[in-house]
Every structure is written in structure tokens, then in C-alpha cells.
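Human:
Class, as today's exercise, you are to examine the entry below, and be ready to discuss the fold:
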Amino acid sequence: MRSIAVIGCGFGDEGKGRVVDYLCHENPGALVVRFSGGHQAGHHVIRGGVDHVFSNFGSGSLAGAPTYWSKYCTVDPVGIANELAVLREAGVEPMLYIDERCPVTTPFDKLHNRALDAGNKHGSCGVGFGATLQRESDRYSLLFADLFNSTVLGIKLGLIQKYYGFSNVPLEGFMECCKDITISEDGITSVRQRPREYKTLIFEGSQGLLLDQDYGFFPHVTRANTGTKNVLERGLRPSVYLVTRAYQTRHGNGPMTNLGIPHCIKENPYEKNDYKGFQGEFRKSLLDIDLLKYAVDRDDYIRKTVNKKLVITCLDLVEDSHSFTARGSTVVLPDADTFAEEVGRRLGIKEVLKSKAPFGGLIPLGQ
């Protein structure tokens, strides 16, 4: 069985979803595996007239690839129901396998998340992801398997409400979505282990390496292992596609370099990051090689494996400024290929692929 891991190098928003979509088209019969994060991810894919941001389904869905939602990921029943309706409206019928051990996000988790991180001091998405995992660690557990037992579901929701101390929180919509997804006969399936009949597994990362809970910059991290840790625990040794934009981005609070350096980064007409959302400002600056090298080197598997490729997206948005910083200096290159080749060289990655916005496939250097 072939396995591929698509990993973001930065703070997220690198273009992982587009790479997964491309790989699914290149590998018919693949299964997309979400192995970190959960419903807080937002992966933008444009394909065949459909323009969609995936949060509760894998980014290979437009290519007809089913998704396996592993036990490391949170599940949002409301988000699944809403996104499923949007996809079906666009003529897409996705298949989603959900591991029954996945933690479930409730309305209580979302309310607590937004109250706790008011002002977005940590950079939260505000959808209850971190709150869900904290509640789980405190043993107030609600798993996907529990949604199939109405008695157990009712008892656990009552205990979770007491855990947070909330009152008068409407649950009708949440309960209806739970009912809808658990009686689904053709689109959502509860499983204990991932299906095994697929010849290619494409592991879709959530946030980037610089938000990893173990080596990101706490407290501005996600409560997930965004590198290869969860993939390796399955005994797999995947090839790795490392993804970065041609410039640095960050959505919400947290440290970010090069903000004071002038640049000519163009506005992305396909950008889906909302400057006014709960996360706050979407920032961009010159690519920082020191940060990327730190992220890649902290993941031992990525650092040691020779079976890796670097994907640089949105190269057309820096065509007037092929620049990055390294060791405190700004490096200016004459063209896109030279820029991409030098970024790869400094990261110790020989095979570099390039792409433009919104996504024109993966193009080798020199083409």
C-alpha cells in the first residue's frame, strides 16, 4: 500500500487542500486520511466549477476520494450536516468514514472556546476544537460512537453542561444534526479502523508545522500533532509533500517575522481567509527560511527521510519580489525557478515543485 503525507511547513494556509485534491486526481482509488486537528481546518479547493472550503470532509472529495476521519480528529455534527448540504447543492456526494473514537464537539465547547479566547489572544478559530480536547482530557468524554445511543448521549450532554456551568443553551439543532448523520445510509459511516481496500492513502495535514503542539510557539499553537507523528504510529513510512506559499502567512495572533520588511506580495483574488472573522487579521510577509528550517528539522522523520518533495504555491503572487530572509538578511532572486530552487536547497530538499494561484497543478522547476 502506498502512503503520502501532505504537511504544511508554516502557520497554516499553505495550500495543503489543493495539493491533496491534485494527488487524488493523480491517484484514482485513493483514500484521504485526516490524521490531526479536526473541524477547525479550512482547506480551499477549486475544481470543475466548484469552489469550496473543506472543514469536515477531506480535500479529495471533489475528485471522488472518500475520507477517513481518524481518532486523532474532532467531529462537529453541526458542521458535518451543514457542509454536506453545501456539497450536495454543488452536486458532490462525499463519502466520510468516521472512527467511532473521535471526540465530538458540542455547542458548550464552542461557547466556552469563544468566551475563553475573547479577543483571540491565542489565535483560536473559535469553533471549540481546543475546548473539546481539554474536556476529553478532563474525562468528560463524548465520542462519535456515543451519538448512536440516545440515552448515553443525553446523560453525557447533561454532565458536559455542568462541567462548563452553562444554562439555557439550545441543543435542538445539535441533536437534529446528530440524528441526521447517525441514520445516514449513504455518505457517513462509523468505523473502528480505517477501510483497508484502498491502494493509496493520502494523509491530509491540518495546520502547519509551526503550529504543532509540541514545537510550535506556545500558547499560540493548535492542540494537535501537525507533523508525521500520528502517521508513523500506524507503522507507515510515507513519502512527504511539504507545502508552503511563496511568502509567509499567519491568521490570528502569535509571533510572525518579517512584518516590518517592505514587500510586493500581490493580493490573492482567490483568498478565502476572512480578515473580520473570529481569528482576526490575516497577515503576510516575506518567507522566513530560518522558521521553515526549524519546523522541518524538528520533525525527525521529515528531516531524515529522502522521500520528500517541497511544494511552493502562489508563486505568481511574488513575481515582482522573489525574496526571502535567512539569518537576518534579505535574499533577492531574479526569477521564480531560481527562487524555488534556492528555498529547496536551504531546506535540504532536492525535488521542488511549483504552483500558481488558485492552483495549476504541480510543475517541476524549469517548466
About this structure: The mean pLDDT is 90. The first helix runs from residue 16 to 26.
